[in-house]
Amino acid sequence: MREKVEATLNKIRPALTRDGGDVELVAVEDGTVKVRLTGACAGCPMSTMTLQMGIERILKQEIPEVKKVVAV
User: Using an 8 Å Cβ cutoff, are 60 and 24 in contact?
Assistant: First the structure.
């Protein structure tokens, strides 16, 4: 499942890098995807929205086994 998550994050990554940020996959455990937002995303007040409405939504659409996405 880690490979599927990484492939999906690679699809999302261009949108983040356009705004000066990025996402790093930390771990996949029991349907929970742990990511680290980096660059401009790390300190952005909208990072929670990006994580939940962007990254989590897309990962759940692409990979039904994903239950939640958390930032670490």
Answer: no
Residue identified by tokens 């705004």 is 19
Q: Which two tokens stand for residue 71?
A: 């930032």
Measured CA to CA, the distance from residue 2 to residue 52 in angstroms comes to 19
Burial class (CB in 10 A: 0-12, 13-18, 19+), 4: middle
Domain annotation for the chain: domains and CATH numbers: 2-71 (3.30.300.130)
Q: What is the mean pLDDT of residues 51-56?
A: 93
pTM across the whole model: 0.91
Q: How confident is the model at residue 60 (pLDDT cuts 50, 70, 90)?
A: very high
